[in-house]
Amino acid sequence: TIICGHWSALGLYQQHNVHALDTGCLWGGQMTAFCLETKAITQVDFDARDKN
């Protein structure tokens, strides 16, 4: 199993035991979390303009 980020152009990708989780939070996309135990994905919206 491979879990990675830093590839926001790919977006959320989950195939062949690869979990790419970079969903562009820095660019106004969503913050994505992955639970290892349940394999559940949680995403929250993020406004890139709000630096606080």
Task: Give the arrangement of secondary structure elements.
Elements: E1 2-4, E2 13-15, E3 18-20, E4 30-34, E5 41-45
Parallel strand pairs: 1-3
Antiparallel strand pairs: 2-3, 4-5
How would you describe this structure to a colleague?
With 52 residues, the protein is mostly beta strands. It has one domain. The protein has strands at 2-4, 13-15, 18-20, 30-34, 41-45. It has a three-stranded mixed beta sheet, with no helix packed on it. A two-stranded antiparallel ribbon has the order 4-5. It is globular, with a radius of gyration of 11 Å. The N and C termini lie far apart (34 Å). The model has no long low-confidence stretch (mean pLDDT 89).
Key structural traits:
52 residues; mainly beta; three-stranded mixed sheet; two-stranded antiparallel ribbon; 5 strands; 0% helix; globular
- The SS-based structural class is mainly beta
Strand content: 35-45%
Low-confidence stretches: none
Sheet with most strands: strand arrangement: 1-3-2
Question: Short description, anyone?
Answer:
This protein is mainly beta.
